[in-house]
Amino acid sequence: MMYRGIFAFAVLALGVANAFNAPPSYTHVTKRSISYSSLLMTTETGEKPDYAQKKEYVPKWKKKATLAEVTGTRELSAQDKGLIGSVPITFQQGIGESATLIQTTGMPGQSLKLVASQAGQYIKYSCGKGECGTCEALCNGKYLRPCVDVVPTDLSPDPTTNEYAPLVIQVKGTKAKVVSSGKFFSVKSFILGFWNNLLGMAGFVRDRRKARKNWEERMSKEDEIKRLTEEKKRKKAEEAAADAANNV
After folding, report:
1. Percentage of residues in the chain with pLDDT exceeding 90?
2. CATH code at position 95
3. Which end of the chain is more exposed for a tag (fewer CB within 10 A), N or C?
């Protein structure tokens, strides 16, 4: 039964794959519809016409504006956002012109992990105890670990302005590459889906065999319990009959 199901699914998959291929007549008509002038223009300029230029797929969510862009809160300062703190802190990720800066404020003794979280700065953590060094960052020439370290409490404000010097924390960049979802259908996704369904059918057969074995064991135990119960009832009936005969 399992092999029949696999064979039927393979035939269905082959039919779906052939359906996505363009028929020869359609391709032939498309070639005829191309004008001679467009071919000549392509040869002279070396540029592909509009119909031959494949536009890159852009997901719909990338075209929409973020909440910060809609409300205009991206350019607000830390005080305008409602963040409380007297020590200016700048999180720097990257080097040079490609570096991203996030400015916020913190209070002396406040956890740097909390400060980074409320500022929207991503930091990769691992143990959370300050032992592995995954989150290690450089702050004004000193290395610290934001998972356990806090905003320094021994900072002294400027006597003239009565403000603290800003802390620049250089965090590690992420190496994860953002992969776009791309098109909904691809040959790779179709093959992976077929393989996933094949594994699912094999798993169903395996689990069914295990379930059948468990069912047979349970039924044998229930039959044994039924036999012992009937035997116990029979012994009680025999004892009651013997007592009644003795009383007579």
Report:
1. 15
2. 3.10.20
3. C
